[in-house]
Amino acid sequence: MKIINEKGKLFGIINIVDLAVVLIIVLIAGALGYKLLGSKLSANESAKRTILVTVKCPKAPETAALAIKPGDKILSGTGYTNGTVESVRYESAKDTAVTADGKVITTEDPLLKDIYVVIQMKENPADPVLKLGNQEVRIGKDIFFKTQRVEIVSTVYNVEVQ
To answer: What is the residue-averaged pLDDT of the chain?
Structure first.
């Protein structure tokens, strides 16, 4: 029995071109599956370190501060990230003003609040960059703080690796 017959079929069963196309499709599907699921399956949850990130949401409405609750999951795009709200506190937003005689004074805004949110994240210790979803986390960097009910531009205030 010939391996490839006169019709170009391998062992008289399947065309070589068809076999090549099927193998390419299987390889692409396997690569995509590994890319999407492989890193999640291989990362051991117990091997991850806990990181506490404090963000400051300056001059936000009080309704936003009241809508943030411990346990809220952090969103990125349309999906959940590796972070949850650990705690939240807020205080009146402060602003500076110059008086007529040239003195600089600090005033409190009666409507706007500075919100401080502590986010607990789980990260792989081997990752060189701390990320909350697709946003890099570094002190001083502006990020979007986003839950199901709130989205505020915030600044990373503190990063504590546990």
So the answer is: 87
